[in-house]
Amino acid sequence: MAIRDKLPEDSLLNAYRASDDFLDTYSIPIPGREDLLTADMRVLAERILTADIGWITALMKFRDKLAGLIGMKTTQALAQEQTAAAAAGKGVGDRVGFFKIYSVSENEIILGENDWHQDFRFSLYRQRQSGGRIFASTCCKRHNLAGHAYLALILPFHKMIVKTMLARGTA
Questions:
Q1: What is the Cα–Cα distance from 92 to 96, expressed in whole angstroms?
Q2: Which tens digit of pLDDT belongs to each residue from 67-112?
Q3: I need a surface site. Which of 62, 69, 112, 152 has the fewest CB within 10 A?
Q4: pTM for this structure?
């Protein structure tokens, strides 16, 4: 089960975030999961972020309809920008689902998107010690009132989505 946690001190997301940015972190233990402990972070991100979860898919379609009306980027439009490369072959600038890859290291991948109302980054961080743990952290830089309002509106759903995707993607 995913729990609320703290951003690991050596996460690359620490260099991106400012003190007034929104930040949340959830984590899930992965004891005995050698496949997850040794997987390329791009493959792990693909597994977690593109899990087929019906209620999340429906919610994102609804979000896209509303977002498109006010000129925000839609997940569908962003996903179409991805390359046809295999997950492990993707690099900076390519996409996992609708998320653009900003950096990849042995134990962390930073993804996200920039838009007029807010920029966000999503970190998947793998801790190998103590049986292993996967951390999912989201950082949002809100640019204006619309960014603050959007985050307030989606936050309850965001929390459920992150916890569900972590649990399903590591099962």
A1: 11
A2: 677 777 676 665 665 544 445 568 898 888 888 999 999 999 999 9
A3: 69
A4: 0.82
